[in-house]
Design goal:
alpha/beta, binds guanosine-5'-diphosphate, binds manganese (II) ion
């Protein structure tokens, strides 16, 4: 081989190596995480989805919330987002939201039958009741769209085709704040520990939004004993005299099992409530509905308080007071609206855990 041919061969080899290197670089697995949770991110990525129900006009709320959510958690895991809306999302909204994450994002419209007054509800009576609630200062009592939203979040979100195939969802709202690094995968945690429902804040509901919800629920439990878990957590919600103490998990944050809501037991409960018309004659929220079902259906081991997830939804916080957890947080645990572990409802939750541990000695 002449000298110049040898040079040419080496040059070709070098170019080939460079091209191979560039191809590998472009196609490499994206870096999902750093630090402690690296193994879990690669090997234990659970079947989870971040779910956001919102309106086109809430883009600013997403510009506030999503960068925090990505920075604190999702840039390590790249969980997909599903956005749902009762109206189509605009092109502008979709383009702007895609700028806020590297994850896969899907946008869905809610079918009409999941966002309308069902036939068995008297529309005129519902309107009259809304006017009365508005007059009486019931929170969101005069808003039909709010009632649709509560009914959708109670009975239908988990049926949307964009959620098909997912096992867990993490409900996130625009305008929320995320104050602590989440250095592990809460979805994988749920799966590994057989958890069905995870929350941050538990507090009292406004009685005037749910005058007949508890009696209806008790009636349901009498008629459908098969739905009530013998090892239930009704202690959270039921007072000694059998009345509702108004405790409920604040459902604007939820990390939970989709299959629980898709179960025949929940369908029975939701249909029973729906037939009573209380989503429209009163202003039943998805938070007490989810909470009452979780209380009759789940045992304490299937529930989880995400103490470590710093979260703010106006006006309340979940900010961990535990110094070990505070290290990764930017929030003040002494704030008077921090309900992390000092609300009476949370004490009821703790009591149930304590009784369980005692029973396991
Ligand atoms: P609050 O948390 O009870 O004060 O109620 P929000 O106004 O925050 O509503 C709860 C969630 O439902 C939020 O994620 C909202 O973006 C969403 N939402 C409320 N009303 C509507 C509506 O009419 N249409 C759509 N698409 N989303 C709604
Ligand atoms: Mn909200």
């Amino acid at each position: 081989m002449t000298y110049s041919r040898r040079v040419l061969t080496y040059a070709a080899l070098a170019v080939a190596l460079l091209v191979a290197f560039l191809v590998l670089l472009v196609n490499r697995e994206p870096t999902r995480c750093y630090g402690n949770s690296r193994r879990e991110a690669f090997s234990g990525r659970a079947n989870g989805v971040i779910l956001i129900l919102c309106r086109n006009k809430e883009l600013d709320g997403l510009r506030k919330t999503m960068p925090q959510f990505e920075f604190r958690f999702n840039h390590r895991y790249h969980y997909p987002y599903v956005f749902l809306n009762d109206e189509p999302f605009t092109e502008h909204f979709q383009t702007e939201v895609r700028k806020l994450t590297n994850s896969v994002v899907s946008f869905g419209t809610i079918p009409k039958e999941h966002w309308s007054i069902p036939d068995f509800v008297d529309k005129n009576l519902a309107e009259e009741k809304r006017n009365n609630m508005k007059r009486d200062g019931v929170m969101y009592g005069g808003s039909l769209s709010y009632q649709h939203m509560c009914r959708f979040n109670s009975g239908f979100f988990f049926l949307h085709p964009l959620l098909d195939g997912f096992e867990y969802y993490w409900r996130v709202e625009p305008y929320t704040d995320w104050m602590c690094d989440i250095e592990y995968d809460p979805f994988a945690f749920m799966k590994r520990n057989k958890k069905k429902y995870g929350f941050t804040v538990v507090l009292y509901e406004n009685q005037d939004t749910i005058p007949t919800l508890w009696d209806t629920t008790k009636q349901f439990m009498r008629e459908h004993k098969e739905v009530v878990n013998p090892d239930n957590t009704l202690h959270l919600v039921e007072s000694a005299d059998g009345s509702y103490n108004l405790c409920h998990y604040w459902s604007n944050f939820e990390i939970a099992s989709l299959d629980m809501w898709r179960s025949p037991e929940y369908k029975k409960y939701f249909d029973y409530l729906d037939r009573k018309g209380g989503f429209f004659y009163e202003r039943w929220g998805d938070a007490p509905v989810h909470s009452l079902f979780a209380s009759m259906y789940l045992s304490i081991d299937e529930l989880h308080h995400f103490e470590d997830i710093g979260y703010f939804h106006s006006p309340y916080y979940n900010c961990p007071a535990n110094p070990a957890l505070q290290l990764r947080c930017e929030c003040d645990p002494t704030h008077k609206l921090n309900f992390a572990s000092n609300h009476k409802c949370f004490q009821k939750f703790r009591e149930m855990q304590y009784v369980k541990y005692k029973g396991q000695e």
